[in-house]
Amino acid sequence: MENTDGFVSISGNWEKWRIETTNRLGSIDRRTFMKLSSAGAAALIFGAGPFTERVVAAPSFSAYPFKLGVASGDPLPHGVVLWTRLAPEPLAEDGRGGMPQQSVAVRWQVATDENFSRIVLRGTVYAQPELAHSVHVEVGGLHPNRPYFYRFKAGSEISPVGKTKTTPALGAAIPRMRFSFASCQMYEHGYYTAYRHMAQEDLDLVVHLGDYIYEYGPNQYVAPTGNVRTHNGPNVFSLPEYRNRHAQYRRDRDLQAAHAAFPWVVTWDDHEVENNYTDGLPGGRLPVEEFLRRRAAAYQAYYEHMPLRRSSVPQGPDMLLYRRLTYGNLAEFNILDTRQYRDDQAAGDGLDPPNPEQQDPNRTITGEAQEKWLLDGLAVSGARWKVLTQQVFFAQRDFGVGDGQLFSMDAWDGYLGSRNRILGFIAERNISNPVVITGDVHNNWAADLKIDFNDPDSPTVGTEFVGTSISSGGDGADTDARAQSIVAENPHIRFFNGQRGYVRCILSPESFRADYRVLPYVSQRGAPMHTRASFVVADSQPGAQQVGGEPLPGYARISPNNESDTERIEAQRRADRGPRSHR
Ligand SMILES: [Fe+2]
């Protein structure tokens, strides 16, 4: 049906939407799927069944139900995912957010204006108790590369308004694309001032690279500048606990503002489940079977709180998160999952000298299927900038000052087979303009990607921008002695900064620009934003060239405030010793 604006309307026809959804998933045998997936997941996909019988069409709530805000994500040229979760009591101990064990009808609207005078799409979905009354509406029929506004209504309550944007048409020539990437938002370590500033930017997309939540109990992980907020409960293990941890983070107004301002594309690192876990193995001391139960709970809560498509509905302890997103012919994002399929860290994890396990070509950080998917995609991509959107440090980073090398076994340095295969493929196939974006390490870095990192004359085949944390590690400082020695030790590493913030990227056919946006502090609210450094990668000229930026004036450049490994090791030790480490 075509309305006067020329938009295709599915005008609130839930039944039609459900049928279309089911048809799209027609290749999956329903009974097989029901067996594989949790009841909640099946209910979400197939809509009907026993769940609709318990729908509350005109609910009333004990309090405002949209306290966790709204979000959108995984945009396409004609659609986007719209998210909210009904939770009038977000931290209710049973993890149900103060909602009944019944499905609740939620109406949604998409408009071209903020006042909703020009509504182009509307519909109804059912928020189900099996998925913590979260909704993930996959709207379609929108125009490419356009902003849209959306909101939800349940009973007589109306949500805040969110703004989102579709991607350009496939292959379209576009002059510019802007996104910011962020990671690591340990709630106790600081305020989310960076998100308040990010919400004011002019962006097409926000990319989150993981450590969206931290699993620890109160003050198990302490920032060098002290903790300024407190986690809602002990180290999280169960589904209600993971739900409530997400809910606590999501109540933050600055985080809500950034979600409401732009579509997000998210991937996880380790703390969404547990520090330094790999595939089915815990990072701490939990028995494997219990760890898998923990992983299943963590993945489900993650799905429930993120604007993800049905393709990411968890199936027990498994969840498909790697996927691709394109912006016309300008950019392609290969969103990787380097946690779920990786081999255990070499040499028992930690900082280690070169060792046979690290060098074993059979070991993998992506798993075989994802690596093939990535390389196949790079080979056929028509996009100018091929972004590897991922978690852990990709370039070699030698921590050993002077003779002898020391590498992090949790980063790509611990999985040389994987890194060599990817860089070798890029060199061999002449893949143009690969850019790796990274989180995890709570600091800003920039690096050239070398075929042989031990030879400074080896060709540069790509570029890596590592973004600092939103809050993890506390205030930080511009630099420190250890970081300076690492930069000196690694000539392909071009830049370090140890303050909090995010990286804003501006892409054009000519260049990929990265602006390192930093704050002087996160231990108090209201810090001003500053561009610490700007780097540019020119088309067909891999490597990061600094084009501007300077240290924040008025603050000590070198300060003992920067996080060392001590805080993280101590956090894991406290979590292992904690009263709930072996449930
Ligand atoms: Fe982190």
Describe this structure in words.
This protein is an alpha+beta fold and 583 residues long. It contains twelve helices and 25 strands. It is globular. The N terminus is likely disordered. The site of fe (ii) ion (FE2) has 6 residues, from loops.
Proportion of helical residues = 10-25%
Rg computed from alpha carbons, rounded to a whole number of angstroms: 23 Å
How many distinct helices?
12
Q: What portion of the residues fall into strands of 2 or more residues?
A: 15-25%
Number of strands: 25
Mean pLDDT: 90
Q: Supply the helix-strand structural class.
A: alpha+beta
Catalogue the ligands. fe (ii) ion
Shape: globular
Largest sheet: 17 strands, mixed
State the oligomer: single chain
SSE layout and pairing:
Elements: H1 14-24, H2 30-36, H3 39-46, E1 55-56, E2 70-73, E3 80-85, E4 103-111, E5 119-127, E6 134-139, E7 147-154, E8 157-158, E9 162-165, E10 177-182, H4 193-198, E11 205-208, H5 239-250, H6 253-261, E12 263-266, H7 288-305, E13 323-327, E14 331-335, E15 351-352, H8 356-359, H9 368-380, E16 385-389, E17 407-408, H10 416-428, E18 434-438, E19 444-450, E20 460-466, E21 476-477, H11 481-489, E22 493-507, E23 511-519, E24 530-538, E25 541-548, H12 565-577
Parallel strand pairs: 1-4, 2-12, 10-11, 11-12, 14-16, 16-18, 18-20
Antiparallel strand pairs: 2-3, 3-6, 4-5, 4-7, 7-8, 7-9, 10-22, 13-14, 15-17, 19-20, 19-22, 21-22, 22-23, 23-24, 24-25
Fe (ii) ion binds at residues 184, 211, 271, 440, 442, 472.
